[in-house]
Amino acid sequence: MKRPLRSLILATGLMASFQAAHAIEFRSVNQAAILYEMPSNTSKRLFIIASGTPVEVVVVVDKWVKVRDAGGTINWIEGSALSSRRTLMVSSDRATVRQSPDIGATPVFEAARDTILELRGEPAGGWVQVGHQDGLSGYLRVTDVWGL
After folding, report:
1. What is the pTM of this model?
2. Is residue 91 located within the same domain as residue 141?
3. Is 9 part of any domain?
4. pLDDT beyond 70 at 21
5. CATH number where 106 lies
6. Does 69 lie in the same domain as 42?
7. pLDDT, tens digit, for every residue of 36-78?
8. Which residues contact 47 (CB under 8 A, 6 or more apart)?
9. Which residue range is the domain that position 48 belongs to?
């Protein structure tokens, strides 16, 4: 009886450790930066990514970070071009930011696809608090953004 319980506790602990070790990490580009094909300044330069753009960290190698953008493209960027400040990108055609996390709440503003918003709080109940660079803030459904 004790052995199955101990095995269950061990398996649960290992699963929790695995999930924590594989949590998705998002960062934001802190200044317009070049994305590269390989982790080197001498590799092929692919394009410039705009300041504030959220990216998913795939792997870190020395001063280089392999990142995935909202479109799923994976490239390399210098780690110094990334910030721990979190932003989100609107992924739906139009997203309504509301005064409170409720579908019936008063709209504050609408954001078009690819609009960059600042993450102002952890997601809860299917909503996330966001802020616009113009100073407006409110709540948006998590299904309307990329970068969480």
Report:
1. 0.79
2. yes
3. no
4. no
5. 2.30.30.40
6. yes
7. 999 999 999 999 999 999 999 999 999 999 999 999 999 999 9
8. 34, 35
9. 23-83
